[in-house]
Amino acid sequence: MRRLWRNALLLAGLLGLATAQKPPLRPPDVRYEPSPPEVVRAMLELAEVTPRDVVYDLGCGDGRIVIAAAKEFGARGVGIDIDPARIAESEQNARRAGVSGRVRFRNEDLFEADIREATVVTLYLWPWVNLKLRPKLLRELKPGTRVVSHCHDMGDWRPERQIEVNGHRIYLWRIPERAEHARP
After folding, report:
1. Band of the pLDDT at 25, cuts 50, 70, 90?
2. Cβ 143 vs Cβ 175: under 8 Å
3. CA-CA distance, 78 to 60, in Å (whole number)?
4. Residue 76 lies in a domain
5. SS in 3 state form for 154-165?
6. How far is the C-alpha of 159 from the C-alpha of 134, rounded, in Å?
7. CATH number of the domain residue 123 falls in
């Protein structure tokens, strides 16, 4: 039995090492810089996250936003990051926080990822990345889905609300009704 456990641990370690050594799908668009805890909380409060929500964090880093959404607001969460090392770190952080059953992490390119399930999308990207991502958000997300960005706006798409927390700007938008869905 002891040998079986030792072999299982060895295999788990090798799998973890293989994941950690796997390179990103392509070079990341932004460098990893986590949002401070008070900004994470303010983002989720601004989006009015509830247990009915599915929060997607595009460029999730260490997973802190979707983990907080699950732990503090009862939501489900999906983190997407291009760097497999960040995904491994996020999964470990979710286990430590006791929310592994409420969150998932996917090693994907945020421009290609399926985000249609989201009711809230969080971002901490650079301005040009937000602008490049904007058409995808408007095309794929359901009307009423909330989009929250730490620090950077979306060009001429005016936010519904904007707040400041300890010098950090946070923006909120809602995906509008599409012309084909609008009532006459």
Report:
1. confident
2. yes
3. 9
4. yes
5. ECCECCCEEEEE
6. 13
7. 3.40.50.150
- Non-local (6+) Cβ contacts of 57 within 8 A are 63, 65, 66, 77, 78, 79, 80, 121, 122, 123
Domain assignment present for 134: yes
Q: Are 81 and 56 in contact (CB under 8 A)?
A: no
Give dist(CA 168, CA 69) in Å, integer. Answer: 19
Residue 69 token pair = 């959404």
Single-letter residue type at 49: V
Residue pair 67/91 in contact (Cβ under 8 Å)? The answer is no
Report which residue type is found at 172. Answer: L
Write the pLDDT tens digit of every residue in 128-158. Answer: 999 999 999 999 999 999 999 999 999 999 9
pTM: 0.84
